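To whoever is on call:

I kicked off a structure prediction for a single chain this morning and the downstream step that reads the tokens threw a length-mismatch warning. I double-checked the sequence; it's 278 residues and nothing unusual in it as far as I can see. Pasting both halves so you can look.
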Amino acid sequence: MLPEVDLTQKLAPEIYVEALPRLQLQLRALTRELYDQRRSLIIVIEGWEASDKGGIIQRLTAELDPRGYEVFRILPATGEERRRHYLWRFWQLLRPADEKQVLVFDRSWYGRVLGERVEELCPEEAWKRAYREINEFEEQLLDFGILIAKFFIHMSREEQLQRLERRRDQPDALWRLTAEDWAENAAWDAWAKAIEDMLLRTSTALAPWTVVPGNDRRFARVKVLEELTRQLSRELAYALVAEKPPAITENTTALGSVKKKKKGKKGKKAPKGKNQKA
């Protein structure tokens, strides 16, 4: 799957400069509609180290009302978190729609089937069981009326190595470089296998993964914003005024959204929440 992603895709600077503010304003209008409908959105950003997850999140939130969103940077579990089920701490982070309309996760519960799997931080039976647990967790959120958008930022091994080396050579960026970053590049094949399994086994009809080519930062940022505004506009039945065609058309991504149909029953629309607490 990952080898099929076209990582050569780029976005011209002039298109980026025009498209980015337009999409940011559209996203702001959609988050206002979330507030009016008393619904909330969870955005999951996963990706390789140095894949510009932080830069993407910065562009996603730049024009949003700071009272209506919160960003969570997920680090390895510590203290009480380690003594409880790994999903426990994520339940604690959920907010009612009238308090926060957008929750952004810079890494997430998928750490159980990614880092914890590759680095052997949990038993094999635990991370294998986690695929079902994660799908059930997200299904409960969807049934409650919460929208979920999941993005994986993919890049090449060579591009990651170049970015890590640039961080190493820049004093003001060196603090961002860790031993784990180098280790991920060295264990690329093991990580790629874990990522492929995650995409295939946790992409559902109502919560599909969108794999975003990330070798070009401008392309990845605009792609995430376009896909997010498209999903939100559809789910909220809110029509955006399209003064210009999309900067990135549907056929520019080799993989796009990874979808997997549920077995045994058809997917159903999630109900609108009525100012309930999760």
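Update from on-call: the warning came from a stale cache, not from the record. Cleared it. Sanity check on the structure: Strands lie at 41-47, 69-73, 102-106, 147-154, 209-213, 257-258.
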